[in-house]
Amino acid sequence: MTGNREIHLASRPQGWPTEDTFRLVETDVPTPGPGQLVVRNQYLSVDPYMRGRMNDVKSYVAPFALDAPLDGAAVGEVVASESPDIAVGTTVLHGLGWREYALLDATSARPVDPSLAPVSAYLGVLGMPGLTAYAGLLEVAAMKPGETVFVSAAAGAVGSLVGQIAKLRGAARVVGSAGSPAKVERLRALGFDAAFDYHDGVRESLRAAAPDGIDVYFDNVGGDHLEAAISALNLHGRVAICGMIAQYNDTEPPAAPRNLSQVIGKRLTLRGFLVRDHNHLRDALLTDVGGWLREGALSYDETIVDGIENAPEAFLGLLRGDNVGKMLVKV
């Protein structure tokens, strides 16, 4: 272990990031001090929220530093340990992705069981995206059996799980939007009752897919999807606002949905949420989702890009919607 490669933030993008936003840097493999580990990363996650961290603005999480490695969820094997609690050879989940070798305190690593699922699953269906889907649908939106659910970006890591969990928990009808005919077909294969390509028009497509309206909207997109959902929501409908990826690269302030006044008459609830506020559901996620996986009742997709040097392209592809399911980098 003599060489380590990291992806650094080279510049702050204005609008869409480009390859010049990132820099591949070669460093030495770190040496652990007391209570520390060195982890050889096997998979790292790229996620939409990372786009916001490239801006130097106040937010719920600190921005990435210039000329320093980016970070994010990763899973890998401990190759050196100065901790009595975590031995060499343990597979751990941690927050220092975007590099081949990570130096971290043992207290910030969470051991995972590679015999229960492929290790990549702990970055997807059994990790942050899975918990986001589970908590957002069942706790934030408080979906009840018999309701109709609409999910945007439904072929992504979170959305594809939201739709399946909704069906497994008794939703009467689940509708998803996606960005291509192939993704629409995948949603139908996953058990969505209806799916449409948003390029065909969101409002009209949603009305056709859910003629009796919707009760819950899981929002990953914002913009025209949120506006269409507000129009389609029934009385006392709920919106769990997870993300607004359609606006992340805008250089001008987005226009609010033009029909917000309907929130009053319909007595709607629009609630934003962060997955970190719902860690109390992690055990329930592992029990329920883990059980559904073992039974074959729930499926998940991964789009895997090989090589740390290709992590920037994986991230750009995520923003373009190139992925089906979870976008991962195999290190």
- Report the total helices: 9
Q: Count the beta strands.
A: 15
What coarse outline follows from CA principal-axis ratios? globular
Distance between the termini: 15 Å
- Give the helix/strand class: alpha/beta
The portion of residues forming beta strands comes to 25-35%
Mean pLDDT: 95
Regarding quaternary structure, what we see is single chain
Largest sheet: 7 strands, mixed
**Segments where pLDDT lies below 50 for 5+ residues?**
none
Radius of gyration from the alpha-carbon trace, in angstroms: 20 Å
Helix share bin = 25-40%
Listing every helix as H and every strand as E from the N terminus to the C terminus, the arrangement reads EEEHEEEEHEHEHEHEHEHEHEHE
Architecture blueprint of SSEs:
Elements: E1 4-9, E2 22-27, E3 36-45, H1 49-53, E4 74-81, E5 91-94, E6 101-105, E7 110-111, H2 128-140, E8 148-151, H3 159-168, E9 173-178, H4 181-189, E10 194-197, H5 202-209, E11 214-219, H6 223-232, E12 233-241, H7 262-265, E13 269-272, H8 282-295, E14 302-306, H9 311-320, E15 326-330
Parallel strand pairs: 8-9, 8-11, 9-10, 11-12, 12-13, 14-15
Antiparallel strand pairs: 1-2, 3-4, 3-6, 3-15, 4-5, 5-7
Helix pairs in contact: 2-3, 5-6
Quick summary of this structure?
The protein has nine helices and 15 strands. It has 331 residues and is an alpha/beta fold. Strands 3, 4, 5, 6, 7, 14 and 15 form a seven-stranded mixed beta sheet that branches. Strands 10-9-8-11-12-13 form a six-stranded parallel beta sheet, with helices on both faces.
